[in-house]
Structures are given as C-alpha cells and as structure tokens.
Design a protein that fits this description.
39% helix; 3 domains; binds adenosine-5'-diphosphate; 19% strand; Arc Repressor Mutant, subunit A; 3-stranded antiparallel sheet; binds zinc ion; binds magnesium ion; single chain; alpha+beta; 514 residues
Length: 514
C-alpha cells in the first residue's frame, strides 16, 4: 500500500439521490477545552501559545510517583454544561483510564470517564430552516452524555510536504496542552433530519458553541482547536429498522466544515451502498481544501482501550445542594435570548438572522448598552467594517478589536448625526476615518473638516441663489409640484459642498416658495 497522500477519490452519489433512497443517522462528538486557569489534574497554567514544553510538571508528564488532583473549577464547569444541556447529573461518578500509546500522551493512558459520566440524558433544541421551506423550526438533538477528560499534547510533523505524519522526517511534541481539561459531549443517534442533516449538524454545533460561550466555560474557538467536532454518519435504506455502519470523521474544525463533512459522507456512503458495497467502520480525515474525507484507521466498537477505574483519584460525588446552586447560575438559553433581543431591538426576522450569522449579537448588545440606538449599532457594525473583516477572513468582533474600534465609537458617531453635526454621507466618511485609525469620530470629523454648515445665513444665501438661478423649477414648486424640490436640493448641496443637512435645505426651500 502506498503511504503517499495522493489517494484515489471516492465515488459520490448525487445528494438528491441519497436523500431519496436513504435516511441519514448522525452522531456528533464535540470536545471542548475549558478555559480554566490550570490543568485538569495539576496546577500547570493553560495559556495558549506559550513556548513549547514550558507549562508542564511531573503530573501532566506522567512521571513516576506523581499524583493527580481534580480541578474543582473544571468539575463545576462540567456540571453547569450538563445542566444547560438538560442532563441528569451523576450523584457519584469516577474517572477511568483509557489505555493506549501515542507519543503526544506521555502517561500512555488518558484520564477520562467511561461508563460513569458526570452528565447524561439531555437535549439541546436547535433552530433549522423549516421543512416547508419558510421560516425556521426547532429540532431537538438528544444528548447521550457529557464527560470530563484531559487533552493530549500536540505533535508537529516536520520535513514532509503536507504537515502530516506521512513523508515527515521527524516529529516534535509539545506537552503544554497535555492535561488541559476537556469536556466531551456526545449526542444520541440523530434521526429524522433527512435532507436537512448537514444543516442540523451545523446548527447543533453552532447552538452548542453559543451555549458554552454564554456559560463562559471555554473560548470555543474552533479555528484554534478549543472546540472540535467528530462527525459520525451512517445511512439506512428508507424503511429499514437497523442502523447502517458508521464512519467517524475526526477533528472537523469549523461550522461550515461540519455541514460539508456530513454532506460529503452522505454522498460517499450513498455511492458505496448503491453499488452493492459495504461501509467500513473507520475514522476518516476531513480535508478542508478539497472538501473530501480520506480513510484513517479501522476502528471497531469494541476498541480495546482496557478501560478501568482510575485508582489515583477519588470519585466525584457532587452534593445535590451544590448542583442546585449551580443551576441558578445558568445563563438565559441563547435561542431565547436572541428572541428577546430581537423584540427589544425591533429587528425584522431577516435583520436578526443577518446579525446572528455575522456574529454581531454581542457587539450590538454592548453598543446599545453603551448608549447607541439598536438601528445605529446594526447599521455601523454590519456595513463597511463587516465588508473589510470578511475580506480579511475575520469575524467583525475580532477585526474590530484588532483595529481598536469600540462600541463607544459607534455611540459617538450616532450622537454627531443626531445632534445635526454630520449628515449620513459625512458620517460614512467619518466612520471610514475611524476604521483607518485616524481617531475618534469627533477627531476625524475635526481633522477632515467634515461638519454640516450650522450658519443659517450661509445656508439661506445658497438657497436664494439657487432659486434665483432656476425660476422655472421654482414656479413649479409654487404651483404645488413639490416633487420638483429634489432638483433644487441637489444644487444647494453642491454649492455647500455637501456640508448641509438635506432635510433642513428642503424645509427652507419649501418655506420660501409656498
Ligand atoms: P466512539 O468511542 O467509537 O467514538 P461514541 O459512543 O463515543 O463511540 O460515539 C459514537 C457516536 O456515534 C455517538 O454520537 C452515537 O450516537 C453515534 N452513533 C452510534 N452508532 C451510529 C450509527 N450507526 N450511525 C451514526 N451514528 C452512530
Ligand atoms: Mg468517537
Ligand atoms: Zn502539570
């Protein structure tokens, strides 16, 4: 067998043909890194991006004789996640050793939970486009369990063309990540999504991300790997009563990729089954660039990890009063919060959807709290800055932070407009200056000399001049054809070099002619 990364492309069946003949079954496993200050079983710091192997100790390196101690904040986060996912919380559970060798796992076992997870039997409602094609509807994803474990280190394969292990000359291991607390959240098989399966998968991961963010337990940055998703998928011929064999696509690291990976696997499974073949139960790698998966390793259900209860840790038995107290700390569920904000802000469904999709909810919220109107907050954050952020491949909040543009800037810009100092087109120019790093809206307005002429004498003179130069149009307006006023406004604005308030000009012309 060749070890090259060039593999034959799998056959795929047309998506419409897949959903006509088969029902997809999905299982989503999401790993989320908690943003605790210290690791799961030792006091090492967890900061991202440190010099390799500087945040390690005998415990997370698995040195002989080192003893782990459970991080109480991580347990608290796990319970809050479980409660937010409508799970039951175990009154008593243990950690287990999952034994296998991998160079990035210095203990040769991962401390995880097996048949005694801290949280189990929950659900998360997600919003997906309605089956009718109009509006949205709620789809309930059932949660099998959420359990605590620890992350592994990180290997870097050097010398090859692809950064993968094949073709590499050597590998480097960084154990800074080894031992960072992870919560793994596993769904029950998701049935009944039909042709919307890819959208349901994406909506679930997005909903989970929003929930974890609202809980403030993780950075949930898929691109940095603090949230990762494995996508299990199988197909059943319509009407069948047994699940098909699944594939497990590992480490899919963006929402868009989750959706694409489900769709691709559906089409690949469809082609195999249609051709009379059978699916191999295996892990697969997702390739972002080409949008396909390739075979990883074969994996049976009875993976022999020789799980056994961790002898070095005491069981976790959270008192009920503590669990109930933690329940009171849960945030408003993100979907409900969005509905409430939409009605507070007076946004249409379409406006709210755009705001949500662009990841602007928090920023608008902060801007409104800082004193802007919801309409202005939406307008300024979703205009020019969104276009630029998009071109840079960043989301608006990240991009705004990089530029140093804040909600206060929007508040100030809006007040310059409402106080009559700027008209809309000037405000746009001022905003461009703010985005270009020229200062606050007031500073930009001052420096660029952008200000409406407040001198009523100058404005009146310009209006008189334009009326005198256009007697025909003036007569029309006198005769009641008020729509002709636009032509005069345009000329006055020209004379004033755009630095007049168009509605004031309009009122003045009409007052003079009628
Ligand atoms: P593993 O350790 O092999 O990854 P898990 O139980 O952790 O197994 O996760 C398997 C995931 O796949 C779960 O979300 C489960 O609901 C889902 N699943 C199980 N069987 C099937 C199947 N036949 N088709 C699709 N998904 C499945
Ligand atoms: Mg798995
Ligand atoms: Zn350590």
């Amino acid at each position: 067998m060749s070890t090259s990364t060039q593999r034959t492309t799998d056959a795929v069946l047309d998506y419409d043909d897949v959903v006509a003949a088969y029902d997809p079954v999905m299982g989503l496993e999401v790993h989320v890194e908690l943003h605790t200050n210290t690791k799961m079983f030792c006091g090492c710091p967890t900061a991202f991006g440190a010099e390799p192997n500087t945040q390690v100790c005998p415990v997370c390196l698995g040195l002989p004789g080192a003893l782990p101690v459970v991080n109480a904040v991580a347990v608290e986060s796990a319970i809050r996640i479980g409660l937010a996912l409508n799970c039951e919380i175990a009154s008593w559970c243990r950690f287990a050793r999952k034994n296998y060798f991998y160079p990035d796992m210095p203990k040769n076992f991962q401390t995880s939970q097996y048949d005694e997870p801290i949280a189990f039997n929950g659900w998360l409602d997600v919003e997906v486009p309605a089956e009718s094609g109009e509006g949205t509807e709620v789809f309930r994803v059932e949660i099998e369990r959420a359990h605590m474990e620890e992350d592994t280190g990180k290997s870097t394969h050097v010398g090859g063309a692809t950064g993968r292990i094949h073709g590499a000359t050597h590998s480097l291991v960084d154990y800074n990540r080894a031992g960072i607390p992870l919560i793994e959240i596993v769904t029950k098989p998701i049935l009944g999504a039909g042709e919307r399966a890819p959208e349901v998968a994406r909506a679930y991961v997005a909903g989970l991300r929003d929930l974890l963010k609202a809980l403030d337990v993780s950075d949930v940055r898929m691109e940095q790997g603090s949230m990762r998703c494995d996508v299990n998928l199988s197909l059943m011929p319509k009407g069948a009563d047994r699940f098909g064999t699944r594939s497990e696509t590992k480490n899919v690291n963006s929402l868009r990729s989750v959706e694409r990976a489900v769709r691709y696997e559906m089409c690949r499974h469809g082609a195999v089954l249609q051709g009379g073949g059978s699916i191999v139960q295996e892990t697969r790698h997702w390739h972002e660039d080409t949008g396909v998966t390739t075979s990883g390793r074969e994996k049976s259900d009875a993976d022999d990890y020789r799980y056994f209860p961790e002898p070095d840790l005491v069981p976790v038995a959270p008192p009920r009063e503590w669990v109930e107290q933690l329940r009171t700390t849960l945030p408003e569920p993100p979907a409900e919060r969005r509905k409430r904000l939409q009605s507070d802000w007076g946004f249409s469904d379409l406006e709210m959807r755009d705001v949500v999709n662009a990841g602007l909810v928090e920023l608008i919220q902060e801007t409104v709290v800082a004193g802007a109107s919801p309409a202005a907050a939406r307008k300024w954050w979703s205009g020019e800055i969104a276009r630029r952020a998009n071109a840079e491949g960043q989301d608006v909040p990240t991009y705004a932070a990089v530029l140093g543009v804040t909600p206060r800037h929007v508040v100030e810009l809006e007040s310059l407009v409402t106080s009559g100092r700027l008209n809309d087109s000037m405000a746009r120019q001022v905003w461009e200056g703010v985005l270009a790093g020229e200062g606050t809206p007031t500073e930009v307005s001052d420096a660029r000399g952008l200000e409406l002429v407040q001198d009523s004498g100058a404005l009146e003179a310009a209006v008189d001049e334009v009326i005198a130069a256009n007697p025909d149009i003036a007569d029309k307006i006198r005769d009641g054809k008020v729509q002709a006023v636009g032509a005069l406004i345009g000329q006055v604005m020209k004379t004033m070099k755009g630095q007049a308030d168009a509605s004031a000009v309009r009122e003045l012309i009409i007052a003079k002619l009628t």
